[in-house]
Amino acid sequence: MTDRLHIVGGGMAGSEAAWQAAEMGVDVVIHEMRPKVGTFAHQTGNLAEMVCSNSFRSDDDEQNAVGLLHWEMRAAGGLIMASADTHRLPAGGALAVDRDPFAETVTNRLRRHPRISVTEEEVTDLPQEGQWIFATGPLTSPALGEAIRQQTGSDALAFFDAIAPIVYADTIDMSRAWLQSRYDKGETEEERTAYINCPMNRDQYEAFIDALLAADKTEFHEGETATYFDGCLPIEVMAERGRETLRHGPMKPVGLTNPHQPEVKPYAVVQLRRDNALGTLYNIVGFQTKMKYGAQTSVFRMIPGLEEAGFARLGGIHRNTFINSPTLLDEQMRLRSRPNIRFAGQITGVEGYVESAAMGLLAGRFAAAGILGHSLPEVPQDSAMGALIHHITGGADAKTFQPMNVNFGLFRPVDGLKGGRRGRKDRYKAYTDRAKAAWSDWLAQS
Fold it and tell me: Where FAD is bound, by residue (predicted)?
């Protein structure tokens, strides 16, 4: 009953795991190497720092799998979702947050919890004793990565993740750009005007694509190989796949009308989403990049409205490491070869802030129950949590295992429902109704 739970890594997964375990009555130590040992992407020593986008994506819990995951985490008293709701920013139907106050809130609540302590140190091996959760995320330190590789007996899998740039709002030319959410989505005027839109005609778009393709890119170190996660492709990689790819992706012009020229339909549109509550910072949506800094400023200033843009942060790229969870982890996220160790978050092969925090939530509850001498029922596969953990702990093909966002493709079909696009609305509502019932029942049993 006096055993402590040790959590390595204070990102989304580690923070949520610590909160859940402490709320169940277990003493927790968070081992976070920052700020003593920095990383390429992090800027502060705060826990749960958001290093890429500031969006938790769709908040629609009836028609979207990630929105359903939001719902389940809220129902479980999740710290990450509570903090995100506190610092929510207008973003149409998405849940975007003011990243710095969000991380500060998570950090303060964890540090003030009577059962949680935080130690700033780097853990470089896998301990033989005690109960541990490793939630070190995409930027696991080289020393710990090597210890994991030695224990698992295989090379860690990896992919590259990219970061989008952030622009100072007062440097955007609003005589060319305008405020509007796609299809005017949102219940309030603030939500319906949550994005800044920069239009391009065909010639401007073609010139932009030429510049992207010709720009100097970051070169990888010798011997460094990895793939890209499709949900976070650098824009120049998308452009290399076809000149129209961006226009049908992050630069699609549908659902938008330029009030400066309402009779002219833009050929492409670049969207920027508010990045802080003050509205002084905007990130360029979907514009992750591996271009060198000098190339970024010149290429991005080709965008109408951004000719004089000032950048609070330029984009970048980093290596994201994850383990082959289907072969290495059991159904409670324990390392099969070392059951005193669990893994959680992006290192398990889930992708996204919400998915990482969700796996931290489950790992924290599993570990706490074990320490307290309890047993938890199996997570229902028909919930979003269950669909995701089932995928990473056995549902996925280990030979082709790659990072995965939560999506309805991971859910078991509902009998009697029409397939295809026409039946999608009813099908998704059936998925979410079934998931909410299953998850609520699991929480009651737990």
Answer: 9-14
> How far, in Å, CA of 115 to CA of 313, rounded?
36
Give me the DSSP letters along 340-394: EEEE-GGGGTB-SHHHHHHHHHHHHHHHHHHHHT--PPPPPTTSHHHHHHHIIII
Q: Which two tokens stand for residue 416?
A: 């009697």
What single-letter DSSP state applies at residue 303?
S
Q: Phi-psi region for residue 200, left (φ > 0), alpha (ψ -120 to 50) or beta?
A: beta
279 is in an annotated binding site: no
Q: pLDDT truncated to tens, each residue of the chain (446 aa)? A: 458 999 999 999 999 999 999 999 999 999 998 766 656 556 677 999 998 789 999 999 999 999 999 999 999 999 999 999 999 999 988 999 999 999 999 999 999 999 999 999 889 899 999 999 999 877 777 788 888 888 887 665 666 667 789 899 989 999 999 999 999 998 899 999 999 999 999 999 999 999 999 999 876 544 444 566 666 788 998 999 999 999 999 999 999 999 999 999 999 999 999 888 888 889 999 998 989 999 999 999 999 999 999 998 888 776 677 888 999 999 999 999 999 999 999 999 898 999 999 999 999 999 999 999 999 999 999 999 999 999 999 888 887 787 788 998 888 888 888 766 678 899 999 999 999 999 999 999 98
Residue 352 labeled ligand binder? no
> Do 256 and 269 meet the contact criterion of CB atoms below 8 Å apart?
yes
List all residues 6 or more positions away from 16 whose beta carbon is below 8 Å from its beta carbon: 73, 78, 79, 80, 357, 358, 360, 361, 364
Amino acid identity, position 142? P
DSSP 219: P
* 14 marked as part of a ligand binding site: yes
Alpha-carbon distance values, 67 to 231, 325, 385, 436 (Å): 17, 24, 12, 12
Nearest by Cα to 58 from 355, 270, 388, 423: 355
Residue 11 annotated as binding site: yes
> Is 344 assigned a ligand-binding role in the annotation?
no
Which residues have a Cβ under 8 Å from the Cβ of 337 and sit 6 or more positions away? 151, 152, 328
* 9 is an annotated ligand-binding site residue: yes
